Amino acid sequence: MKWIFKYKRILGALIAIVLLYLSFHDLDQALIRQILSKIDFRLLIPAAICACAVNFFKAARWRIIIDPVCKTSVRRMLSIFSVGQMVNVSLPALTGQAARILLLAKQAKLPKTYCATTVVLEVLFDGMSLVLLMLACSTMVVFPGWLARSGLLAGIVLVVLLTLLLLVVHNRRRIRVFGHRKLKIKFPRFFEKIRHVSHSFADALTMLRSTRHTLITAIFSFGLWIAHALVIAFLIKAFGLSVPMWGALVILVVNSVLLMFPITPGNLGTFQWACVVSMALFGVNKESAVSFSVVLHIMDIVPVFIAGIFFLYRDHMRYSDLRKEALDAASGTAGKIDEEKVAVEGE
């Protein structure tokens, strides 16, 4: 398992190098300097504020998701989320998600399986919001066939996943009875192992039984997408691009679909390539698209690092320890942790 993880890290780095080369190697450097010199830097301020709002919405939504099981403050969730995302940016694929899962498990004394399931619910709500936004954007622009098919496939997968989760929530008792009757007798050791995992998984899904929690979570999901679209809209104005304001939603949707499966650390390379593809729909030249992607990428990453560093020192956490734990968890080298007795880490 460990060698597979190392291979994944090397592959992610190679893909990043290739995509960065394809994005930058044939650019007109003089034209890029001219584009950057004409940026209206005053518009970067509201763009940065909206970028911070994206992270706030994500942390607030995460708090609502765990609210039925664990009561906590937005401030505490913002700390866990910001530090976890900071680690996430520095690691390939979804490895960094392990950091905030472990952090939440330790600080809130929750099972890791439960914490991981809350992240799955986040992805579910993000995906459903993305599909709805893509349907809305399809009335204004014609997506390439491969992109439209990807959106359709994502929608089908999400609907199936949501249906399965709802079935688990509403048939929890039947599933438990089935486990006792079929598994406990024939496979007692296996039954004991999955019992704790399934219990934590089912607890996380209880949020879907609450109309109030589901509605608020959906509102926060759309709120963060709108805030992210506003970041792009302000940057479009700052660059003076001839892209309509509704084009910000289209660019956001296309970028999100192309970045659905992170491979490179911090989406380096894949982010620039996605921006070039999405902005080509509006006839934006490659130099402008790549310049735009660099500034947008900074807007996505810098607020995460600033908030992460602030909470890292404010709450007495160590980045190196968190990163190592995330790497160990992802590579399968971490020691076995008792899910039901997670100690609080801190100084």
Primary descriptors:
347 residues; mainly alpha; 14 helices; globular; disordered C terminus
Order of helices and strands: HHHHHHHHHHHHHH
Largest sheet: none
The total strand number stands at 0
Instruction: Tell me what portion of residues adopts beta-strand conformation.
Output: under 5%
Number of domains: 1
Rg of Cα set = 21 Å
Helix-residue proportion: over 70%
- Count every helix, treating DSSP H or I runs of 4 or more residues as helices: 14
Instruction: Point out poorly predicted stretches.
Output: 333-347
What is the overall silhouette? Answer: globular
Q: Kindly report the average pLDDT value.
A: 77
Return the structural class: mainly alpha
Give the CA-CA distance, first to last residue: 32 Å
Strand and helix map with partners:
Elements: H1 2-24, H2 29-37, H3 44-66, H4 74-89, H5 97-108, H6 112-137, H7 145-170, H8 172-186, H9 188-205, H10 211-239, H11 247-258, H12 270-280, H13 286-314, H14 319-331
Concise structural overview:
By secondary structure, the chain is an all-alpha fold.
Model description:
The chain has helices at about 1-25, 30-35, 45-65, 75-90, 95-110, 110-135, 145-170, 170-185, 190-205, 210-240, 245-260, 270-280, 285-315, 320-330. With about 350 residues, it is mostly helical. The chain has one domain (about 1-330). The longest helix has 29 residues, at about 210-240. The radius of gyration is 21 Å and the shape is globular. The relative contact order is 0.17.
